[in-house]
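Q: What would this chain look like folded?
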Amino acid sequence: MRIPCSRLNRLTLIAFLAGAFAIPVLAQQAAPPPTEAKAAPVFENGEAQKVPAFSNREEWIRHDLFVETTFDSDGDGKPDRMHVDITRPLQTDTEGLKVPVVYETSPYFCGIAASDSYFWNPRQELGADPPVRPAAPSIEPVSLRPTMSDTEVGDWLPRGFAVVHSASPGTGLSQGCPTVGGDNESLAPKAVIDWLCGRAKGFTEAEGGDPVTATWCSGKVGMIGTSYNGTLPLAAATTGVEGLEAIIPVAPNTSYYHYYRSHGLIRHPGGYMGEDIDVLYDFINSGNLDRRPWCNGEIRDREMKEGQDRDTGDYNDFWAGRDYMNDIGPMKAATLMAHAFNDWNVMPEHSVRIALALKEKGVPVQMFFHQGGHGGDPPMKMKNRWFTRYLYGVENGVENDPRAFIVRETGRRTKPTEYADYPNPESQPVTLHLKAGGAAVGGLEAAESPAQGTESLVDDVDVPGAELAKAASSENRLLYASAPLKQDLHISGTPRLSIRLAADKPAVNLSVWLVALPWTDADKITDDVITRGWADPQNRHSLRESEPLVPGEFVELEFDLQPDDQVIPAGTQIGLMIFSSDRDFTLWPAAGTKLTVDLDGTRLFLPVVGGQTAWDNATSHVE
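A: My prediction, written as structure tokens:
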């Protein structure tokens, strides 16, 4: 309320006279009661603190709506609407408080397929037509209103944020088709962010309904999530949408080709043998029953069937359209990446490749890595500093923090070790050569020993990789190991293998494990497998085109193993195991293919902190 000038002048005069002449009547008047302060966020040490006024769950405002998008992915002639739920502090209604948003979107909130009976049968000859995949069970639609998820609210509401969830296209009450990496999965969260920032329309219902606006939103949005839910923040960020200031993707799938293929080889995610992109489509297809036949026909049975190529595993335009590396041009959201170096589901290359590319673009990037398996958020302190800086604008200096935080092998996830960057700036590739004897255990040495010749193995997918690694000898693998380490050796970065090989058939699986010996069968995930890699020798010149092998003719190829950062303890031998079909990851052809390796034409490039000097000090026989 404004005060009229004439009244203001009178009040000023009275105050002057009261001060000059100490008028008793005014001095004896009671002071007005203090106005109760409005609730506001509190920040200490650069972090948003829990505020009692925001912490009463019973007072939180919960409602849902449907945001209209710019696409029609289910072919009904109308823009698809996304189902969105909101949880926000009471004060956004009662006190006009405007708050930033922590936003998670997912295809999993509203139901998933209940079994794996519809996965592909991995028993398939390389290059042959795959066996017919069984039909998937139908997912019963679930209506979750007004709240489809309660994730993140306990962490962020008490700290003065609103939390928003949405169901991905073609899941739950969201309209459209699931596309598993298609453009609509990027544009759907963009539409929600546009609505939060006042640029898109929201309605109370999926059809018709009254308009809904987000007058309580400050216009600053951060996204977070794990696995598929971690992929979608990256997808939204690639649109360059205004208002998306920061993302925290945890174990995100940044390329569906890298998830289901490896250097031209058909390779399944760990723990999900027989899964492919059409299987994942069926796993999340929980949307409108009336539109499912159209979606199944257009997306799964046409686009995916034509594009996924379980015959050769080659890269193509279908896969390129589902690789977010190809879309990061507009991306500017500050990114805190999180991943595990022993995640054999969504492998660490997914986060590493994007983080390195964003670093080159000048986008603020921080990386959190741990030694466990799939998932695993950064500590709350890191997340809080990230969102406090970029959503509330508090100058906490997070952009000047070390770029990499890595949980060491015996460390706690809440106490990562800080490093200037990843890979470790002191890491240098060390070239290692093979020394004959791989049917038992040959050598893996920095010194080159000429004329080592060739050694062969026979493929048998029924022998698991762990059995091969701990066998004293085996005809089904070749194993080359360093001397026992005299001191700890820190590796940091992406190992690379250059190999010269021949096969007695036109196609062969190639699998490589870097292992710690002796194999212990320990429960600790870092004890035995250091890292892994897979490749198709038919794709030695191009991921887009297979070139069948000429039986007996040697070819050369180079490929990366999975990134790692691990301290290998003294007393351990580092072993390079070369074999063919990997029971846990590749197709399962009939046993018997012979694979021959030219030892003199094969080298491992191992990224070692301290480079050649550190390797020599750790492996030298000189006392």
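The chain has a mean pLDDT of 93.
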